[in-house]
Structure formats: C-alpha cells, structure tokens
Write the structure tokens for this entry.
Amino acid sequence: MASGARRPCEARGKEAVLPNTEVRDAATVILVRDADARPSVLMGQRGKAAAFMPEKFVFPGGALDPSDVAVPLVAPLAPGCAARLADGCAPDLATALPATAIRELWEETGLVLGASGVWDAPPPGWAGFAATGHRPSARGLSFVFRAITPPGRPRRFDARFFLADASAVRGDPDDFSRATDELSALQWVPIAEARRFDLPFITRVVLAEVAARLPDLRPPATVPFFRNDDEESLFLRIGGTAP
C-alpha cells in the first residue's frame, strides 16, 4: 500500500461527487527501443482540438473501457507487479488495465502486444485486434508509474504507466498503417532528445524515471505514485514486494 495515504480508490470516490471531476482509470504504454544502446520511446501528438492535453506529445494510452474487464490475457503480469497495480483498488484492475494498455496501443499505433490465438467472440472494441490473429498478453509489461490528474482539468485520469521492450511487438514496430487518427506524428523519439518536444509535465517526470532505470526494463520493487486530490498533492511509492 502507498505509505502515508488514504486508499487511492477512496480518494477517487470523494472526488467523483464534485462537478466535472470524475477520475477515470486509464493505462499508458511506454515502448522502449534499443534500451541498452541509444534508447528511444514511441510517442505521438494529440490533436489541436483535443479536450485533454491538446497538441502535446504523449505515449499511447487512454481510459479503461468496461469491455476490458472481460478480456482474457494469454499471460498475466508478474505476481508482484500485479499486486502493486491492484494496491488499494478492485482486484480485477490487475488484468483489466494491462488489457486497456494493449488495446490503446493497438488503436493509436496499430502495433500488437500479444500471442497468436483465435477468439471465440471478441468483446466490443476488440474486433480489430482479434482480426490480427492475436490475443493480448501482459508478458513483458512492467508497471512503473501511477499518476492522478490534478483537480480543475477538463479530464481527470488515474493513469498507470506500463513499460515494455519494443521487441515484444508482433510485426514491424515502424508500421503504423493500422493506427487510428487519435495520435499524429507517430515516431520513435530518442530519450536524449525528448525534452525538445512539447511534453506534458507528468510525461517529463515519467521519462526521467524510465531513463534513470534503463537499460533495466523489469518491474521496479516500488512504483512512484503522483497522487493529486482536492486537499493535497503527494509523491508516494507503492509496494515493496518482489517483481
């Protein structure tokens, strides 16, 4: 449990009763290429008319869909990693949020994290992914950061950031031809050059954390948690168990 804090889900419950401050669960994927040489990360630019972080360069990601809860993973997160992800929240988030991360990566970039497999009947939002002949796999995903959007923003998310090696992508990691138009200018950004891009504050913080750990892509023993509620902002750490 994050030390010194109320349970995060309880904090979200308090915030949700305030006008226009509903906090939605979300997941983001940080794909890293050449982690032990000249590392780069996959990023894209949000649209000018976007309600949340317009024109900013971000990692692929988005809000949890109800159907993500029902998506079976071919392989789950490592047990300790799943425990840190579920800390203070509903147990099914340990499978639903990795599924969200994989789906959002697929929708925004056209890239697949999964294993070959046939679906009986894909739930809403998963038909395109299923048509590639793959089922989602959380093997290789590491839960590395959590952040709640501060109050007063037009959108608020309880975002979990997952790290993965680009070698886990099935197919060509430079082929974005199946991506939707949610992100433009998709590209592999060298971490050493990322600060020249227009990045959200939290993206800069996460990048710094990731860069400090490279080339290690394994789940950290404790996960940084940037928690914002209506009373205070806290920088905490979740966990302490083995990966």
